[in-house]
Design goal:
The chain is of the alpha/beta class. 47% of the residues lie in helices and 15% in strands. A 3-stranded antiparallel β-sheet has the order 2-4-3. A 3-stranded parallel β-sheet has the order 6-7-8. Strand 3 and strand 4 form a beta hairpin. It is globular and about 55 Å long.
Length: 287
């Protein structure tokens, strides 16, 4: 679905993306001209390991190509200024390098061209994090990621634009990160009051207690969503639901989306700029 997400970014149906590191890494893999292949979940995994083939359920990819990606990320990280980077700044610069190298469409390159911020709160839990660790191995002053800065920046976005909506695809760490942004924002500005609209498409269910399956009603108890918020939960496979939703959106709402007053970002520097205003430096916006 990477090109669907890229389409949403390119046409500014969305203003900010929160992603797992894995989704961005596999996007990078394809953008660099590598491929994933359809296999089977019943293949002999010992035989796959012997051939250096990695399996994700029924999807296969080359371990050697992944290793080259990690080395490419490490080499890129070693070019950066020796200081911690928020994932927003790092991923913007990574998308720029990827676009300059390949000219190919993808999530990272679309976000670079559209100046859409991407946050990756669990970047260490991915092969992007492994690439950064390899950079650190070569130079102990490299590969530092400021994920706490991400929390401050995401909350400051909500403080500046409190009527926000969230779309959650599959749950995981991004679900809580985007929701906690409104909680942290409200702590410093009581005008926020939680996200005003929410859609989630998840396969998990609430009664096992995990964050991915948690209900949107539960989110209201935390202040993640406004008590008056409009919300919809779809229990289904996002790989089926999202193409249908985006197709409907693109065919019925393109003009409305084009007229929408979009926040304008400059995510290129250490401090992010939103609508011409530089966000506060490692602190929250004044009430």
């Amino acid at each position: 679905m990477r090109l669907i997400i890229a389409h949403l970014i390119e046409h500014r149906y969305i203003d900010v993306l929160v992603s797992t590191g894995a989704n961005l890494y596999h996007d990078l893999h394809e953008t660099r001209g590598r491929r994933h292949f359809i296999g089977s979940p019943t293949l002999d995994d010992a035989a796959l390991a012997a051939e250096r083939i990695d399996r994700v359920y029924d999807t296969l990819a080359s371990e050697d190509e992944f290793s080259k990606n990690d080395e490419w990320i490490a080499a890129f990280a070693l070019k950066l200024e020796r200081r911690p980077h928020t994932t927003r700044e790092f991923l913007y610069k990574l998308g720029e390098q990827l676009w300059n190298d390949t000219g190919n469409n993808g999530i990272l390159t679309a976000a670079y061209r559209a100046k859409v911020p991407i946050f990756c709160p669990a970047i260490a839990d991915s092969s992007i994090g492994m690439g950064l660790s390899q950079a650190r191995h070569r130079d102990q002053t490299a590969g530092f990621s400021d994920v706490i800065g991400d929390i401050i920046e995401s909350a400051n976005i909500v403080i500046r634009k409190p009527a926000t909506a969230t779309i959650v695809l599959g749950g995981g760490t991004p679900k809580n990160f985007i929701n906690q942004a409104s909680v942290q924002a409200e702590y410093f500005d009581d005008r926020v009051g939680g996200h005003k609209f929410a859609i989630q498409i998840v396969t998990d269910v609430p009664h096992f207690g995990g964050a991915s399956g948690s209900s949107l009603e539960e989110a209201q108890s935390w202040g993640k969503l406004s008590i008056e918020s409009e919300k919809v939960t779809v229990h289904g496979d996002v790989t089926l639901a999202l193409p249908l939703i985006v197709t409907a959106l693109d065919t019925t709402s393109r003009e409305a989306a084009a007229k929408r007053k979009k926040p304008e970002f400059d995510p290129s520097g250490r401090l992010m700029v939103m609508n011409g205003h530089t966000l506060a430096d490692n602190r929250y916006q004044e009430n």
